[in-house]
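Task: fold both queries, return tokens.
Query 1:
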Amino acid sequence: MFKKILIANRGEIALRVVRTCRDLGIKTVAVYSTIDSESMHVRLADEAVCIGEPSIKKSYLNPVPILAAAEITNADAVHPGAGFLSENPDFASMVAKHKMTFIGPTSEQIKMFGDKLLAKKLMKKNGLTVIPGSERYLKNIEEAKSIAKKIGYPVILKAGSGGGGKGIRVIKNEKNLIPSYSLVKQEVQNSFGNENIYLEKFFENPKHIEIQIIGDKKGKVVHLGERDCSIQRNRQKIIEETPSPILSEKERNYICNLVVKTIKKIRYESLGTVEMLYKNGKFYFMEMNTRVQIEHTITERVTGIDLIKQQIKIAAGQDIKFDQKDIRNGGHSIQCRINAEDPLTFIPSPGRIQEYHAPGGPGVRIDSALYAGCIVPHHYDNLISKVIIYSRNRNEAILRLKRCLIEYVINGIKTNIPLHLKILNNEDYISGNYHINWLEQFLSIQN
């Protein structure tokens, strides 16, 4: 097992990794930008090293000071957390070249799934149904028009790499395709440094279902059930739950077992999440994330398995100690992402936390690095906390979650807690009758 792990991230996910390392008896090294010097992950880690200015390009996205910090502290492994460099194959390779272990899949696997078209081809070859669309990156507008005509409108233009909802545009007809093509290409170039875009069939109002898998270095793969992540704004998830309120047990077993079969064929190792669209009783592969997901928490609640702990053990060469039959998914779990933003305009709301009180009680988990007096900087993602609820059934979980959101005190900045309460009180949500475009439609009615 590792003696010391450097955590190449910040905020609640860095703190999450620190805590699991403590549970395993592993020393930790936090890295931080100058504005994060008083952050909770810095305070609780065994050591901490400043890696640069607040700009992400000069700190959390700069591998040079991160690797230097790992070397001077004699870390023998690097945990990338979620976001930043977590799905960067070059960073994973650099860690290995410095004789340290990257806690995640191989750089080759990260690269393979980072190319979304390559990932689609691989998964289709190994048994998953993929969304109809272009099989290579688009060369010109004429090629885009030809494919769109073949698969039928509406279609969606997508970036070949990256994420966060960037480089995506829904096209209803050919008239809109021509200007959108140039705009998406430019956005992708600005965001990801290339012009790789592709085109897919756009499904009206599907569900977003993802399957959590774990694979070890000997080829063993198990799944830990599915998550429903369909409550989204601008392609960004804000509420996730497990199990999905819409899937039957037969559908759940079918897709989870099919994903395991597919992942085994490619001998994937570490945590991974296979993201699917679900429409009219069919599942379509979208992409695979090769890191721990922000919403891993709800899977932990229903299975009792610490995913970060498993991720670290697999990176250290240990086998998965349990079989598929040993995993018991019981009860219901829901997570709300608390963002520092105006709940009506969604304008970011950075600032200093003046008063902080987290909710508690049975079945309540709060993953956050907030405390009274801390600063929420404007330089980073505005996710500041995750409220995770577990109960015997979905109705009880919703009631418990509403109680916790009412109790939660975060003063000094604005948050989206009022929006979460509106969603949780809506009949569509309560009945499970929602999809990936539901929140936008709900907000348009509210406004």
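Query 1 returned. Query 2:
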Amino acid sequence: MVVNQLEVKNFRNIENTSLEPCKGINIIYGENAQGKTNLLESIWLFTGCRSFRGSKDNEIINFNSTKANIYMDFNAFDREQSASLEISEGRRFFLNGVKMKSSSQIMGEFLCVVFSPVHLSLVKEGPYERRRFLDIAISQLKPKYGVTLSQYNKAVAQRNILLKDVAYHSELYDTLDIWEDRIAFFGSEIIRQRLGYINKLSLYTDEIYSGLSNERERLNIAYKQQAIIGGDNKQELYENLKSQLYASRKNDLITGSTSIGPHRDDLSIKIDGLSARSFGSQGQQRSAALALKLGEAAVIKSFSGEQPVALLDDVMSELDINRQNYILNHIKDWQVFITCCDPANVKHLKDGKRFMMKNGVVKKK
């Protein structure tokens, strides 16, 4: 998968600029607040996912305009394709001239992974960020997973409402069975998919992290269930989750919230057997987050046959020379966009293109 040309109009501080990247590594450098991250964000949106920066659509339109437009020509699945996105009071995607009915319809057409400083939260913050990483990664591969996740979240929300209402309407107690059955049905599939994904992901993250650390350290990831529900057998997961939901009713009625299920699970990340969150250095934590994202790319390729585009925002910060060298010269046969402030950080790049960005405009150097 390769981006051949990109044109961006009225997107954040970018009024009008274009880019013709190479098929390998593309370095975009410049001072802070010049639009480097905005450029990567514009590419990411063609995955159909929301902004990796957590922004709302109306926040990414240039102040001097009422809409933003992005156009991209790319190679995917052995053919040249074109896509466009208009953002105004919503999003309108077009793929090869055909209007998409929704953002979810374009998912899987353009495959991409992104690493930015916000993704350090994968290691540094609480379980929510790691669950979100898993859910977005799986949704890119299996769009129906997003539907399952939505149904699960709705069922949990309904059970939580009911837990609070039972105190005033005891006749509602028996209706908990309905929502627990739905939680168990959808939740068992979520756990099964997450377990399968992590099993695949771990095949790559260990090797990638080993390369980043010059084989001095080992990374281990594992799915951490808040309550032991079971393995990858869906029926077993369903039955165990349902029985544990029933067993937790007394406590849940007191707290007014559902304490059991995949919405409470986590992804364990350890370096040499120790928690990366609690004991990892800044460089180790950044390397662990990067290994997760590069591993995500490897899983996408194994699943789809297409190597996704990689967007690496400010990836060089707090990495030593060996780790920088690995990124610049050992990620081969796929297209990568790397942003940085100091061009000296990329002096070890042996092949690729360099672009300078200033005031929202890209210039090849």
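Both queries returned. Flag for query 2: The chain has two domains: 1-111+306-365, 120-305.
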